[in-house]
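User: Sequence recovery, please. Input:
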């Protein structure tokens, strides 16, 4: 009687191109997310630029599944938009809606800073000082992305010190939405941010640490007002220059 044919030994499947055996799909999605997020926030990927899954899969040498996961996260951050035709683009910046955005932002600067002066603990202050030190270091080395990230983390830490999770969530969302506007603004300085910003942060930290809610409120209001005014002036200059170029080109 003939022996039954032996079944071939199971072979270990090879990882997808560009993926190591130890890297999961989640890790791949994180790599894509971080890379695209950096490119969008740094304006290397311009507002309105197409984001193509097939091209990204080839660029990162991954399947389209982790690409899609990364795009879903970027969409939740408001950095990419899926159009009705299912194409994805880098989200445009809503300059028309900026006045309303600035109003909400300025209010949250004040509310969270005042609340932090009342409710902060030493543990909170350690976090706030740490993020302020990171911001000062980023300003010194003219690292725009690090400036934007550490500035955001600094103000979120202040909001967390205030103890109101709803304020913290809303303020975090506003800060995240404004990152590209802040990047445009830093570009107007050639990424050489005036030391005034570091000094203003230091004054806010001192007022919070001293528990002086009124002073913290005034400093936060002044800080927000001068940032908003500077950004408005920059956008106004850029708009005027664009209109002038269009007029000359006719």
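Assistant: Recovered sequence (250 residues):
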């Amino acid at each position: 009687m003939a022996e039954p044919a032996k079944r071939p030994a199971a072979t270990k499947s090879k990882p997808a191109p560009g993926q190591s055996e130890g890297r999961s799909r989640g890790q791949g999605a994180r790599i894509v997310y971080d890379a695209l997020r950096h490119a969008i926030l740094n304006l290397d990927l311009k507002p309105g630029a197409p984001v193509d899954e097939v091209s990204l899969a080839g660029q990162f040498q991954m399947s389209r599944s982790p690409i899609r996961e990364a795009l879903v996260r970027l969409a939740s951050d408001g950095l990419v938009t899926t159009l009705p035709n299912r194409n994805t683009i880098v989200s445009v910046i809503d300059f028309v809606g900026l006045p309303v955005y600035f109003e909400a932002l300025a209010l949250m600067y004040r509310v969270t800073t005042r609340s932090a002066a009342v409710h902060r603990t030493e543990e909170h202050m350690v976090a706030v000082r740490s993020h302020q030190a990171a911001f000062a270091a980023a300003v010194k080395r003219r690292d725009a992305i690090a400036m934007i990230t550490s500035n955001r983390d600094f103000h979120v830490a202040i909001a967390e010190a205030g103890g109101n999770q709803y304020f913290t969530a809303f303020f975090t969302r506003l800060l995240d939405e404004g990152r590209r506007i802040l990047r445009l603004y830093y570009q107007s300085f050639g990424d050489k941010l005036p030391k005034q910003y570091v000094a203003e942060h230091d004054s806010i930290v001192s007022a919070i640490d001293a528990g002086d809610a009124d002073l913290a409120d005034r400093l936060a209001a002044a800080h927000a007002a001068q940032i908003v005014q500077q950004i408005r002036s920059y956008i106004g200059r850029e708009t005027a220059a664009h209109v002038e170029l269009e007029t000359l080109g006719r």
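The CA atoms of residues 159 and 167 lie 7 Å apart.
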